[in-house]
Amino acid sequence: MIKLYKQLIHISLIFTATTSFAQQVKLSANVEQAMQQVSPDDIKAHITYLADDKLKGRGPGTEGYQMAVDYVVGQLKSLDVKPAGENNTWLQTVRLRKAFIGDANLSISNGPANSTTITKGKDYVVYPNPLLPQVSVNPAQLAFVGYGISEPALGYDDYAGIDVKGKIVIITRGAPDKFSSSVSAHVMNASQILKVAAQHGAVGVIMGSADSAARVANISRGVYSIMDDKGAVSVSRTFYSKQLSLYASINYALFSSLLEQAGKNLKEILPQLKAGQPSSMLLKASAGASLTSTYQDILSYNVIGKIEGSDPKLKNEYVVHSAHLDHLGIDKPVQGDSIYNGAHDNASGVASVISIAKIYHSIKVKPKRSILVVLVTGEELGDLGSNYFAKHPTVPVKSMVADVNTDMPTIIAPLLSITALGAEHSSLEKNVAQAAAYMGLDVEPDPEPKQARFTRSDQYSFVLEGIPALHIKYGAKTADGKNNLNDFVATWRAKYYHKPQDDINGIFDFEAGKKYAQLNFLIGYLVAQDPAWPTWNPGDIFATR
To answer: In this protein, which residues make up the domain named PA (predicted)?
Structure first.
């Protein structure tokens, strides 16, 4: 009952904010006219080109992706956007490395006379090392550290009271029930798990499955990372540092047996962890490994443009409008079609960002801050391109004050309400409320909190660098008053999402696309005009700067 009361209060505050901020947005006649320059026909044309079969699904490093890059650069040039990539070009080079596991053996023993016989591909999988072609991991004691979370400020620390220095930690992915969905997704992220393990001195990480029916991952198609120009690993979800020489996963049966050897029951431990009770312990077993890795290196690109601000000082600060340009390329045929065109995901988002640039083109007096237009590669591979840009931006990282990301806005019905993923973590919530009220849109809480969508797209890469960010998605409101748009979206998603059927012949509402672009523009414009920086909420888990 208390939880429901808090939810109602939050909804009430959102509604109050939306109405109370409405009068604060006063745009000049020129800006209002510029917003009307967004054309549903233009949005359709952009999507039609980017999702055409000739681009072959815009897979990073392919000829089709390069065609998409050339198209976007051409559009931005026509709108007087200036290049802001490397060496005064439009591009930032992204060096993708696809790593494949060769020979790989994981050995587990709880004493010289008692070794556990396990089978690669059935009981365990060892992930390739993107940096070292050959790795040998000396036997080290195993330690179970629950979820692998260390957040004392949130009242939970799996590493408290246990020394894992020089040990291999076993972790099961999850988070206590008391954590919010976005916080849970953050601490469950593989990169975060590896980072925390390394900070506590571990030399390897093994992920234990909590699902007795699940199989270990099939990584035969390779695992992606990004290398920097010096040959070091810059971005990876499976590698953190040379210190962590092993990253592997094991099935439920093996995981459970290791705990049983220590006198513990996995079925009893899992509910304790969900209840916020760490159950970390040293195990009686040790593990060692050997592995070889081979690589396929792929060049891809982020596209970056700049619209210079009008304030002599604030023009050196940036509001970012981002979207991913890549999709899945050519893959397994579905109903005879093997080209994954990605019309909604994310040609529609790219079209929206181009439309935002068109609005700025029509504004005579630019906003105080500069606008950075960033179209990234490798989102479908794990937010790789945006992560690389956020870590190695072509402008000073501390000059980026906010990111407004657009990923698959799902323009399949009239846009009457929205949810702003991640806005609740920062003062950007105010800007969303102002912009939505100006445009007559309701703001609703995330209807799918368990999907943790805030940490599943490119805005999360900026968040990890301490930059407030958000991602606008559709709300539930419908014209017939049933307010069940989520049901329609679920049906649509089952047919089109990540399938070749996501092409220009699918369901579209280009007027909704126009509204999305206008709304995202206005959120960014309000931030660009405000002399004060967006701020994280006090004590927020993402408040790192």
So the answer is: 149-213
